[in-house]
Design a protein that fits this description.
Strand content: 5-15%
Largest sheet: 4 strands, mixed
Helix content: 55-70%
Distance between the termini: 30 Å
Strand order of the largest sheet: 2-1-3-4
Radius of gyration: 17 Å
Bound molecules: S-(P-nitrobenzyl)glutathione
Oligomer: single chain
Number of helices: 10
CATH topology of the largest domain: Glutathione S-transferase Yfyf (Class Pi), Chain A, domain 2
Shape: globular
Number of strands: 4
CATH architecture of the largest domain: Up-down Bundle
């Protein structure tokens, strides 16, 4: 049976593939698995039934082979562990690719989220313009270090891996993308990721579903 992913019935990202199910959809497309989707309204996210799948009432959740899993990074790791092609074969390379997954969600993403929430929720406060400049600088420092680590390699750890999926999904977020002109190697890395047929297929599918659902 195909895995089921819980997704927004009508994503607020308007089909731009910025919601957290995108990494899961992309990983599944990379390994040639077509998911079934469980579209949920915001009200349905808060039901006990969904919280049994995702304790915080969020998307995505993943169900397959009797396993119910939440957290996009954990789901992508599970997919990578159960299909060839998304983690290096050697033990150390695999550990490093997983480290990049953690780096994406716990080192780069928090700074990006801080910037997004400040712009979204504190946009009218007198201190906000200065705070946004400070947050942009924090993102800049992370991007500069990421560019140094990537150097002239196409992917973060050997061949394309789950680490790249998670990192590129963070780089796609608007505060990062806005600064990528300052980091041409990362802009090229992001473009390489988005050009992958699996990314293209997963992106097109979520966009088509958003268009159909939003009328
Ligand atoms: N750490 C969790 C994971 O990676 O799985 C975070 C999951 C998460 O934040 N899910 C969000 C959610 O379900 C959707 S992705 N929110 C509903 C809620 O909390 O009630 C975050 C998101 C939402 C909208 C946009 N957008 O409109 O562009 C982008 C990203």
């Amino acid at each position: 049976m195909n895995p089921i992913i819980s997704v927004f019935a009508v994503s607020p990202d308007r089909g731009s593939g910025l919601a957290r199910d995108m990494a899961v959809r992309w990983a599944l497309a990379e390994v040639g698995v077509t998911p079934e989707l469980r579209p949920l309204s915001f009200a349905e996210l808060q039901t006990p039934e969904h919280k049994a799948r995702q304790p915080f009432g969020q998307i995505p959740a993943y169900e397959a082979d009797g396993l119910t899993l939440f957290e996009s990074g954990a789901i992508v790791l599970h997919i990578a562990e159960n299909h060839p092609g998304l983690l290096p074969a050697d033990r150390h390379g695999r550990a490093r690719a997983i480290a990049w997954m953690f780096a994406a969600v716990s080192t780069l993403e928090p700074v990006v989220l801080d910037r997004e929430y400040t712009a979204m929720l504190e946009g009218d406060r007198p201190w906000t313009p200065e705070r946004l400049l400070m947050l942009d600088d924090r993102i800049r420092r992370r991007l500069a270090d990421l560019a140094t680590a990537l150097a002239d390699r196409p992917w973060l750890e050997g061949d394309f891996s789950a680490g790249d999926i998670m990192m590129i999904c963070v780089l796609r977020r608007p505060p990062c993308r806005a600064l990528l002109a300052e980091q041409p190697a990362l802009a090229a890395y992001l473009a390489r990721g988005e050009a992958r047929p699996a990314f293209q297929a997963a992106f097109a599918d979520q966009l088509a579903r958003w268009q159909a659902a939003s009328g």
